[in-house]
Amino acid sequence: MTERPERPAGPQPHHPETMAVGHGYDAAAAFGAIKPPIVLTSTFTYPTAGAAKEAHRTFFETASPDEAEYIYARLDHPNLRMVQERFAALDGAEACAAFSSGMAAISATLLATVRPGDTVVHTAPLYGGTLGLLTGLLAGLGVRSFAIPDALSPASIAETMGVAVTKGRLSVVLVESPANPTAGLADIRAVVGAANALGRSDHRPLVLVDNTFLGPFGQRPLEEGADLSVTSLTKYAGGHSDLLGGAVTGSAAAVVPVRRLRTSLGTHLDPFSCWMMLRSLETLPLRAERTARNAATVAAFLRDHPKVRDVTYLGFLPEGSAARAVFERQCRSAGSTFSFRIAGGEREAFAMLDRLRVIRMAVSLGGTETLICHSATTTHYSVAPEVRAAVGVDDSALRISIGIEHPDDLVADLDQALAAV
Ligand SMILES: *Cc1c(COP(=O)(O)O)cnc(C)c1O
Questions:
Q1: 406: CA distance to ligand 1 center in Å?
Q2: Looking at ligand 1, which atom is closest to the CA of residue 104?
Q3: For residue range 177-222, what is the model confidence (pLDDT) as tens digits?
Q4: CATH number of 284-418
Q5: Where N6-(pyridoxal phosphate)lysine occurs, residue numbers (predicted)?
Q6: Over 80: is that where the pLDDT of 263 sits?
């Protein structure tokens, strides 16, 4: 391999769609190959003892570990750096840390930020894995969490944070918007405003947004003022249901401590998955656009179907509502994952699911194929019925993630399956 030429610093001159293709990789670094090699190695040779010392000093003691020569693949490796550079560019971020899963990214970010006795404020509902982390490991470390009753209301956000600060140092405000599986929205700017206001008299909490549902082409939390944005790359970013990954983006000052903890936890993204991610990111804008367009068609069909009670699709938020105002300001797309409730309960839902021929039954979302699941008996199996019902996940609720198939085939499949109900 030849030396990589210096990259010009400063703002990225190109559109995200252009940077999705090739940004972060320079063909001159690998024999002119148009696609990057997969660098399968656990360790890297030091040219001299002095270079070894310098690599360790840069990695462990400076604010820019990215400038260190490679040392050992758990610390950093070439494919990891390529993914991080590209995803940071797409998310409009200075820095990125890529992980072996979305949960690895969320866990490392929270563990790098909270200390025993702190408090955490969060939106509700939360992804099950995230909630489990708060109620399990973090609760065990004496970290108490407080849910915001209405994350569209600045008063409700400020009030919850006001309570949390009386119980301990409020270290993180965790926002999931749109929320899984309800597509409930939170006003990120209002959360940032409340965090800033608190920062004038007390410790300023870090604002962390889980942007998995919309991804960088549907919503950019950092532009709304969030400190860190976390994305499960397993979903839309990976996009083919064939890898697990996660990313945290933000300023270098906010990301570097999380990246350092990743070195201790050993949860970096491996070279092969990084390579697959680089390939996936090239088509993310195309997939995001097509899945969103298909979702609008399928959601409209379901809304008008007599056997469907309601649809949570973001494109249907009522004019004049607080949610609609936040949606229009904060989101560029309604995405392609939503829930709908059919007339009846578990029996009717199962009858419909078992007749589907094109749409596949599985958890997860954001792949090329359309996936559907009965939330109450799968993703929310271990959530108490009252808790589920409070967020609209009753026995008739189905979550669907629309893929890139022809929309007419998806509509026809749902139509024939609903005829069985
Ligand atoms: C799937 C998901 C996660 C976790 O991601 P993994 O890659 O499965 O660890 C986190 N948040 C949301 C909103 C998700 O949908």
A1: 26
A2: 9
A3: 999 888 899 999 999 999 999 988 889 999 999 999 999 999 999 9
A4: 3.90.1150.10
A5: 235
A6: yes
Beta bridge partner(s), residue 173: 121, 207
- Report the alpha-carbon distance of residue 157 to residue 354 in Å, rounded: 42
Sequence-ordered list of residues with C-beta below 8 angstroms from that of 279, at least 6 positions apart, any chain: 35
Q: Which atom of ligand 1 is nearest to the CA of 365?
A: 15
Cis peptide before 221 (omega within 30 of 0): no
How far, in Å, are 7, 19, 65, 92, 377 from residue 11 at the CA level? 12, 12, 20, 9, 47
pLDDT mean over 298-308: 98
Query: pLDDT band at 379, cuts 50/70/90?
Result: confident
Ligand 1 site, residue 170, Cβ cutoff 6 A? no
CA–centroid distance, residue 266 to ligand 1 (Å): 19
Residue 177, ligand 1, Cβ within 6 A: no
Q: What is the DSSP code string of 379-421? A: TTTTS-HHHHHHTT--TTEEEEE--SS-HHHHHHHHHHHHTT-
Domain boundaries defined on the chain: 16-280, 284-418
Structural tokens at position 29: 């670094």
pTM, rounded to two decimals? 0.95
